[in-house]
Amino acid sequence: MQIRPILAALRRHRVAAFLIGMEIALACAILCNALFLISARIDTMQVSSGVDEDRLVVVSLDGVDDNAAADLAARLRSGLAGIAGVQSVAVTNAVPFGQQAGEAGFRLRADDPHYDNQGHFYVGGPALPSTLGLQLAEGRWFTPDEFGPISEFLPRSPSIMLDSEYARTLWPGESPLGKTVYAIDKAFRVVGTYRSLLRPNPNPGHTHNTLLLAGIPGKGLASVYVLRTAPGKADQVLQAARALVARVAPAVVVNQDYTDTISGLRRSYFAADRAMAGMLVGVIAALLLVTALGIVGLASFWVQQRRKQIGVRRALGATRGDILRYFQTENFLIVSFGIALGMVLAFGLNLVLMSRYELPRLPLFYLPAGALLLWVLGQLAVLAPALRAAAVPPVVATRSV
Amino acid sequence: MFAYYLDLALRSLRRSPVLTGMMVLAIGLGIGASMTMLTVLHVMTRDPLPELSAQLYYPHLDPLPANYPARSEWGDPSDNFTWPDAMALLEAHRADQQAAMAGGRVLAWPVQAGRMPFRIGGRYATAGFFDLFGLRFEQGRGWTAADDEARARLVVLSHALAMQLFGRTDVVGRTVRLGDARFQVGGVTADWAPQPQFYADASGRGNYGESDRFFLPLATALDLDLSVSGNQASWKEGGKTSGNYTWLQVWVRLKNAAQARAYRQFLIDYSASQQKLGRFERPPANAALYPMMDWLAHQKLVPNDLRLQLWLALGFLVVCLVNIVALLLAKFLRRSGEVSVRRALGARRRDIFLQFGVESALVGSLGGLLGVAIAQAGLWSVRQRPDSYAHVARMDLSMLALTVLLAIAGSLLAGMLPAWRASRVAPALQLKAQ
């Protein structure tokens, strides 16, 4: 197959060919960046919570009266523990993908004027680590005498635990055990670290900056209950728990938005990201469709325009395959030109997005991926017009138009 | 002449229905996607209170300590007011109408025994709130400054809440239980739901789709320690009435630019006096007075995701237009023979250009109609999204007209180059070749 006759023919249609090339270039730039945005969303949505989401049921309550909280918490804990399929019950202030409850700044030195570190303080009753299924990384769990009543919103407790990864960023190269964390006007000593507990509202920049304090259920710690259920029992337990709250505590209201399994809470938490990813997929599909329409339209025109020449070539001995390959090669050349330009554009667009929307740099492998997609699209789009061209009989050459 | 060109265009388009369909579809998709996003943005940034917005201002003071970390992620604490500052501004009476306020959520108890209580959002405000924003009362009235002073247990219900609790609105004097306290109903307002909820705390991001269901005196809420929603920040020990705990919003109504200038100066003077007292550590020039729409812009109500989607949609429109240019070019140049005959028979280049311009505009009009349909489908899908702004996304007449105009303008622009090229065809050469 010779390329020079194709180039010569394209030179006669350089404006149209250039425009289709430009369209492919723009499509390539948008495609690469949109694919990248989608994959970033998917990464965000796949963040690990560190707990067994399907088996953990969360019950969140509104309108808990502080004066009756201790009594209420005790009644609810024993009531919830009695539901068939519940293995253990714990009181907490928050759960992954639930309502944020204890975001606070803290410092590592008592004399530091700034609260430069910010994390989510989980406050849990004695059963929380075992109910969530947390694993100890270093040190030890809280001892029973370390649990304190809540004042302001943190418990009066001498000890604190942290996510092990997070502890490493706070004290790089040092053991966190025995270190002190100063929050509000209280000081807490680190007694241990646990492996991986996600914050309630993770975002790409902040996922595991969590701390755990030991609180006595009661005033300020009676609104969120976590239930560990036997496998496959979560839905049943959820229904039974709702009914139980209405019976045991008629004065409080179940917060329906935050009463679900943790996997259910995760679904609602990422609903907006899923919608955004869906919208991006829609844009990509529409973009590919329009690009394909352009290729089909132009190729069809060229085929019609060149019917006579095609007939002449066929009469002079060219096979159908030759004609088919001619149009395929022509399309390949135009698309390649578009892709080459598109890669530069994709990179430029990414730079703009990086500066305006704090997106990370486009990984290079998106460029060949986008290119491959467009080459395939181009070949598929040109196939129908090219087959029509190949079907032109040699006898056309002898007819006058 | 125009009718003749229109006829020619119709014939030409009908001759190649597949290609015409492709062009119309491309324009429709591009315009539909762009208009969907433009409409969402238009709805989110529109004026929530057109009759008063020109007179409403949000004062800004900066009571933060000099070394307070600047943290954008959680909002700027100085966007809100401390209790002493808000009260000082109100007591100075430099504006005819003014009010301090905070949002709150409480449990409302149905009047009938045995029904479950439900959680509702409302506003704690000083007495001037209703006049300031021009709320209309269906029954009764608001409360007075004396009621504020006395921490009166008074509540004003919205029409919707009165109907929900009592099934009627003539309920002035009845008692309602909110949280753990009982309040006497002082009035019922007509439903009032400015979108975005411009007067609320910035962390609410416009609170699209929400409205206040009840109003009660700010001092009463403070007295009962009712829960406050929105961003609250403190940098020293001390409760809600201390000078280092920001949680309130203050709005004032000023009639003209001169009053606004005077008020701005008053804010700077106030900051300077507080600095002298040792309370404020930052320069008095940080004080500012935002007109309402500037304040909304300052709050950055439009999320980055949405801007990104708008840019994607516009990029997509450009791709569609380039596509149309290429297709029209091929189509027009293919008719070089026809053009040459017309030119030889006396048509001027201008006539040819006009003829093809009309054809482009026709494609654009059809594409615009399709675009309106696609944008409606797009907006429907936006309304299914979980974001709070989603369900206010609807197209009004002006956006509808803009859609069609944009489609025609876009396709005219796209048709320009092909039409120009077609009008440059040398008739002699073409005719000889045939």
TrEMBL record, chain A:
It holds the Pfam family FtsX. The chain crosses the membrane at residues 15-38, 275-303, 332-353, 365-387. Residues 20-199 form the MacB-like periplasmic core domain. It is a multi-pass membrane protein. Keywords: Cell membrane, Membrane, Transmembrane, Transmembrane helix. The keyword Membrane applies. InterPro entries: ABC3_permease_C, MacB_PCD, Macrolide_Exporter_MacB. Residues 283-393 form the ABC3 transporter permease C-terminal domain. It is found in: Cell membrane. It comes from the Bacteria. Its main location: membrane. The keyword Transmembrane applies. Belongs to the ABC-4 integral membrane protein family. This is ABC transporter permease. It comes from Frateuria flava. The lineage of its organism: Bacteria, Pseudomonadati, Pseudomonadota, Gammaproteobacteria, Lysobacterales.
UniProtKB/TrEMBL annotation, chain B:
Residues 313-424 form the ABC3 transporter permease C-terminal domain. The keyword Signal does not apply. It is a multi-pass membrane protein. The chain crosses the membrane at residues 21-44, 310-333, 353-379, 399-420. Keywords: Cell membrane, Membrane, Transmembrane, Transmembrane helix. It comes from Frateuria flava. It comes from the Bacteria. PANTHER family: ABC-TYPE MACROLIDE FAMILY EXPORT SYSTEM PERMEASE COMPONENT 2, MEMBRANE COMPONENT OF TRANSPORTER-RELATED. Residues 20-263 form the MacB-like periplasmic core domain. It is found in: Cell membrane. It holds the Pfam family FtsX. InterPro entries: ABC3_permease_C, MacB_PCD, Macrolide_Exporter_MacB. This is ABC transporter permease.
